Input
Amino acid sequence: TQLLEQSPQFLSIQEGENLTVYCNSSSVFSSLQWYRQEPGEGPVLLVTVVTGGEVKKLKRLTFQFGDARKDSSLHITAAQPGDTGLYLCAGDRDDKIIFGKGTRLHILP
Amino acid sequence: DSGVTQTPKHLITATGQRVTLRCSPRSGDLSVYWYQQSLDQGLQFLIHYYNGEERAKGNILERFSAQQFPDLHSELNLSSLELGDSALYFCASSPGLAGTDTQYFGPGTRLTVL
Output
């Protein structure tokens, strides 16, 4: 079983639409990170959330850490083709970094 | 450019062979992490080194080993290769030990085992 479940696995939407992707776990994490990975490249960190209930904004991206620190969401407003990529969440547990399998997002122009 | 370099970029080899993947962390970073990424398993944590010492092990097979040298570069050795070892192998570096540290990923080594 995957410790961090991401949903949906795939999402294809039109430019300008809003979307939310989720990262869920039955375990508590001291922090969660979101990365974006483009084809042929390594993941790039977008944000780290540490406090339960924390909300962080990065331009059109809004990240939320659940109150119980077991889940997180990423909301994108007015999606653009440049947002296309694989979005990964990752948590630190017992000094091991656990990644979800990711949400593959495709924004259609 | 993350500042992390990995060589080689591509590697094609046969089953049963042994290969070595190399990673140079960002200047000043003491932590090096290795990951394996495949389509079905996603990004899997293999091992973490900090300042030359092993800190944590993930889903690393016994056929795989790694080390971090005094100059902080790291090598991942894969032996008795199987078809299922074909994957992208990433290393990442970070300044210290904190789980909240930013990990900077290299461009990866694509390993194909035939």
